[in-house]
Amino acid sequence: MSSSSAAPAAKPPMRDALVAAAFRLFLERGYEQTTVDDIVALAGVGRRSFFRYFPSKEDVVFPDHERCLDDMTTFLAAGAADDEPVRRVCDAARLVLRMYAENPAFSVQRYRLTRQVPGLRAYELSVVWRYERALAAYLRERFAGWPDGTLQADVVAAAVVAAHNNALRSWLRSDGSGDAGTAVDHALGHVQAAFGRPVRTVGRAGHTDEVVVLVSRRDAPLWRVVQEFETALGRA
Using 50, 70 and 90 to split pLDDT, how confident is the model at 178? Predict the structure, then answer.
């Protein structure tokens, strides 16, 4: 073989080829004007291959969310009993950011598309709701037996999602410029400051006397400080 002969480029996996074909057509024709038949024709595969990977045309726009949701659920389930719950769910939300940051150009392209197509926006909201429910399920288990534990779990989960999405969308609107991680960390910092659990330490292993250290914001109202203290004592 001649040294100038180049090996043929490897074809992308079928799933990736379908996503690439779909977005090329969405940009050229528009989302509504593109059919599944158009996508498979451009990708050079049959309809059966498309539906093996994607239940619907909407799913090809969000190809990685199922994997990310599974990763989040696994991450939460693998947490230790002494993990601070609010910090844990904030870290879980960062998995979603990592998914977007892996391919900024694609993420920005998808963001623009969802802004243009109401049906995709509704689909995206359903995906966000599933993330929120995963966070809330973890928190409900951790807050079981606490005063208003279920309420607190749902409120914190909603706050985490709102903070994360606020920073993420700002990054997407900027066409993926700047450090998305720094923006999301800043937003989630507000959640941790507002809802993070007090730190509890035990002096000697097995000793019945415990020291409860309450960490609260300087400007927190007195009723909130008392509530946090009562909650810490209840857990102790």
Answer: confident
Report whether pLDDT(225) > 80. Answer: no
CATH number of 14-58: 1.10.10.60
Q: What are the φ and ψ backbone dihedral angles of 152, each rounded to 5 degrees? A: -60, -40
- Within 8 A by CB and 6+ apart from 160, the residues are 86, 89, 90, 93, 132, 135, 188, 191
Q: Which CATH architecture has domain 62-197?
A: Orthogonal Bundle (1.10)
Please state the domain extents for the chain: 14-58, 62-197, 198-236
State the average pLDDT over residues 112-126.
93
Of 72, 65, 230, 93, the closest CA to residue 156 belongs to 93
